[in-house]
Amino acid sequence: MTLTDGTYRLGPSTARLLIKTGRAGLGRRAGHDLTIEATRWSGEVVLVVGAPDSSSVSVSIETGSLKVREGTGGLKTLTDADRAEIERTLADKTLLHTAEHPTITFRSTRVTGTPQSFEITGDLTIKGRPHPATVHGKGNGDGLLSGWATVTQSTWGIKPYTAFLGALRLADEVRMEFEVARLEPADGPR
Q1: C or N: which end of the chain has fewer Cβ atoms within 10 Å?
Q2: Which of 36, 27, 22, 25 has its CA nearest to residue 75?
Q3: Which residues form the Lipid/polyisoprenoid-binding YceI-like domain (predicted)?
Q4: Percent of the chain with pLDDT over 70
Q5: Whole-model pTM?
């Protein structure tokens, strides 16, 4: 599928949004590098292929929809109970405050490049705090789009998770990744 001008909607049926964490500290061998997926989210892309500065992207993620998909590394295998505990911790008042802040949003302020290699700069709002973020992306020419952004949790007032008296902690920087399998026209079936 060749990308053409238009307004498209995104969501879990057409794309994936992942958050990948790393470990730090003296006890990092005990923990896991996590892959967390947003399971309830929506987005809209206004695409103007010949004039990327006229294009825009907006995404809204339900903070309560973050699910642990994978845990690699560590001294033991990540169990279902571990996944459930991590998901509870994410929702807790120490991290995302999901009750007070039910969504994470991104609104582009500038799009540059081509469908094959692009950057989207915008405001990422986490816990009610907007800060600039840049998404780096690429397309394969057949409509498959992928990309990433590095987010420093402390910028948004999130204290990275710690355990064992701070010997094990999540790295402050996390990587947000996306993969769009297909763009669905906004005026198409829902």
Answers
A1: C
A2: 27
A3: 7-183
A4: 85
A5: 0.85
